[in-house]
Amino acid sequence: MHAVEGDIARVLVRPLVWSGLTLELGPWTSREVRWRDAGLALVGVLQPGEWIALHWDFACDRLTPREPRGSTA
Question: What is the pLDDT at residue 73?
Answer without folding.
Answer: 43
